[in-house]
Design goal:
Layout lengths: L1 H30 L9 H12 L8 H17 L7 H12 L3 H21 L5 H11 L2 H71 L6 H24 L13 H10 L3 E7 L7 H22 L3 E8 L3 E8 L13 H12 L3 E6 L5 E8 L5
Parallel strand pairs: 1-2
Antiparallel strand pairs: 2-3, 3-5, 4-5
Helix pairs in contact: 1-2, 2-3, 3-4, 3-5, 4-5, 4-7, 5-6, 7-8, 9-10, 10-11
Length: 375
Amino acid sequence: MGRGRSGVRAEVMDWVIAVGVAVALLVTGLSGQHSSTRLDLLGYAPLTAGGLALAARRRAPVPVLAVTGLCAVGYQAAGFDVPVVAYLFAVYAAVRAGHRAITVAASVTMLAALPLAALASGLHDTGEAFAQARGALELAWLIAAGAAGEALRQAERRADEAERTREETGRRRAGEERLHIARELHDSLTHQISIIKVQAEVAVHVARRRGEQVPEALLAIQEAGREATRELRATLEALRDDDTTPPRGLDHVPELVERARAIGLDATLTIEGQGHDVPAAVDRTVYRIVQESLTNIARHADAATASVRIDCRPDALSIRVDDDGKAAPDTAPVPGAGLLGMRERVTALGGRLRAEPRTEGGFTVEAELPVDRTP
């Protein structure tokens, strides 16, 4: 709504300026000395039209430049010795809009056309015609109008750049604050859920030692506490991936595969190419993708085997993780927090991620990350 009101005010101001310039031109034309043998309408019409055309200078600066120039030539040819004020306004608007080359070409044309128009009026000889044209369009004023328009255009551009910088800084600070809050919440929740889990396990242990039947609700609390703790720890580990913790990357992927084997998953790892010069951001993302993929396989896929394949090429690095789990080809994957996190990481690096059930059964996660090794 604020922008709408600002637009209305600007349009009203444009009309005020246009009408004011048109009236000034008419008054100057009426007060001047001109021949009574011709129709005054031939001069008054371009005087009025040239001023009123300025109302559209913001929306159509180049057409307004042409119209005001033609009107100036028209009333000079009709014998009106009136400065081309409307054209100077149009020059300012056109340069401000960025049409510098067109404005220069039009102004050079005007410098040549005005003396010819004064000669065509039949009221002046050659010397007087050039003097009248020079007075109507002072070169200094023309340059000043163009310079003012260019200066304001540059100022507006710098203001836009400053606004974009402020917005980017605000978004970055907001992201940092959200990350800080997320870390604090996860630290607190992990502690509280750990207490719940421990209390539930103690209650189950005591009940079994006494030979009592353990309530199903207590068993459900115990299992939910374990699962919540695992989820929170995995998320917190990802959130704490900063300069205060040792970076985990491509060299640590074998540890993830060994960990998967330790819990009974038949996992294999294949790495092709040399990944020693991989940028740090890509290196960390590879580790997180493999980590999240193997974690999802162990928890949700009900799979017996999994394969991790990493291909390090000069221009890109690709990761593919397959399993033989229960995912069917005709079922759409549910985008959980882990999958969304992987997609955000890959997209931030300009890469592509594909996560979907395989035709032969099971699930596949495939990512391709661009690698820029230029210094």
